[in-house]
């Protein structure tokens, strides 16, 4: 879920940036924005898959477990692939190496911190169930307060 994956991603990235003494410059901001996009996209795909299972009639918890089981490997493999792409940038020398090192570490950390979390999507079943109960309650209360039209 974006509501939980996003704060973990941002806080984890800022913590690593602080530990390594990185500044918040244009490249770091761009890396942070890209990693947030990856994390939100993964969370939305996970949530849509869970909702698809719920619409097929599975209980909310079963749908969350089955949906995250189906999509979890894909998210982990994309996270590892992204980290593998940016690892060579860490070993670049010269001015470009120093310039892109912050970018590589920031985007990899943001993606790993947010994309590697599977507990929030698995809890989507509980959140979805509460949202459905609220929606049903608001619909039933709005239909109960309507008066028949006089004609």
| CATH homologous superfamily title | Multidrug efflux transporter AcrB transmembrane domain
How large is the share of residues in beta strands? Answer: under 5%
Number of domains: 1
The CATH topology is given as Multidrug efflux transporter AcrB transmembrane fold
Q: How can the largest sheet be summarized?
A: none
Radius of gyration: 21 Å
Q: What is the helix content?
A: over 70%
What's the shape?
A: elongated
Mean of the pLDDT scores? 78
Gap between N and C termini, in Å?
48 Å
Structural class, please? mainly alpha
Q: How are helices and strands ordered from N to C?
A: HHHHHH
Name given to the CATH architecture: Up-down Bundle
Number of helices: 6
CATH class: Mainly Alpha
Which spans of ≥5 residues are poorly predicted at pLDDT below 50?
A: none
How many β-strand runs?
0
